Predict the 3D structure of the following.
Amino acid sequence: MPAIAQLCFASNNEHKLAEIRPLLPAGLTLLSLADIGCHEELPETQDTLEGNARQKAEYVLQHYSVACFADDTGLEVTALNGAPGVYSARYAGPQRLAEDNVTKLLQELTGAADRSARFRTVVALAEADGTVREFAGEVDGHITEAGRGARGFGYDPVFVPAEGDGRTFAEMTSAEKNRISHRARAVMKLLAFLNEE
């Protein structure tokens, strides 16, 4: 595979972009969706995290002719048979409001003895030649009875990672969270691959 000179991250989240840029190999330029002129909503119609990540990365490659990686993340709760999973962002409806999703999750877990859960991220890299590679990261933990902390986003206020010190992701600094988070683990595997190329 020829070395990649430019790589699009299928996101316009400046926090995510700023975290990843310094970790990239020298000579590799990271582009956002805005940088390549992509302003439409990317398709996410698959029923797995792998499928959604792949669909978004391939869409950018096909429509904008630039190598791309995309991620999809889900919270999988044991007592809910793996739900909300791939539907984590829209668990409480198409409005995708984190507060509503957390409220619904806590209601669903009322009285549940088992509150174990895991966050899972899949990153798909679509290379210029059409090859797609996947990198996964996960972190085990449990769901609290009520939200704690003001940092992070999504389900962070109710998720306590097993290898932490009892704080939720939302009670940690971004640096603390990134040391053990599912997304960081998946991205580090991607970066290891890119640095080998």
About this structure: The CA atoms of residues 4 and 87 lie 32 Å apart.
